[in-house]
Amino acid sequence: MSSVIPYILYDAMLATTVRSTILLLISLPLLGLVDVPSHSVEIFPHWKKGDRVHLEITRARVKSADGASTITGKTHTHFTIEVLSANDDGYRVGWTAGETIFDSPSQAEHSFLGHVVNLMNGRQIILEIDSHGAIRGVQNWKGLKAAALKSLDALAATENAQNKKSDKALMSSLRAQWESMLRTKEQVEELCTREAQAYFKVLGRGYAHNEPFEYEDLLPNPIGGEAFPTHASMALKTFDKQAGRAVITWRQTTDPKQVARILESMIKEMSARLGREPLEREFPAAISMEDHAEIVVDVATGWVKTLKHARSVNFGTRAQVDTTSIIRTAK
Prior knowledge:
The protein is globular. An 11-stranded antiparallel β-sheet has the order 6-5-4-3-2-13-12-11-10-9-8, with helices on both faces. Strands 1-7 form a two-stranded antiparallel sheet. It is α+β, with helices and mostly antiparallel strands. The chain is built from 7 helices and 13 strands. The protein folds into 2 domains: 1-36; 40-329, Lipovitellin-phosvitin complex, beta-sheet shell regions (Roll). Mean pLDDT is 83; it is low at 1-10 and 21-37.
């Protein structure tokens, strides 16, 4: 009997120790002594009327041909976002661009083309956004269209008055291009919401580690014609619960089979029109497109802190990379 007692005591002590260890491990996160990873997060807008956010958007384009790369343009634009109204149904948000500054030794920003780039700047685009953060439309699209065309006509008149050698053919071509881009409500909304669509893309869904949100989409054809089908995915990279900050990645690639089908159709159409096969410099033999982005968002409010996006387009031996960087600023 005496030889059994030590084992009984040992088992009891061992059970007590195990229970104590389990309780300690459970309590450590509460004490902040163990970093427990957060595996999921929901990102929705939580905005109030009067909220104001300032952004700086930097765009750059790099073109490559036969192994040589050239930066063909870089610009900086400040944007102001203001919540005009907020209710259970959604939000009205003012989106206003400041002057676009060209980051190059040329004086492009002082040229006629530079003024054309700034046509929409200073005009508040009133976005209608649902409670999940999706843009439903542009409330003042008619006024924006009329104001843009009026400003373009005023610029052309000023150019004619100041420069007797003004390129009337160029101005006429620009007027026609703007008219074609602003012909319908849908076209005006697409033009006015390009940056906003990218900025708000992360909103309206939950994200979990190792569970990417995948979907099919379309990309505009860079040479015109039928849009390219794509496969896209958004994923949670990190979530710092204490800081209330989530990092979301976004990736989109064109479907090579569908792109080949579309190009073949376009080549046949072009051949019939020209009466011969198009030359390589006239029409690319192959095209591929890919998007990569990383978005840092404040989970408590739904405001994006930073967004870095790159779109790569390959035309056979030629390539082009457009990058966009959005940073929230103090003012």
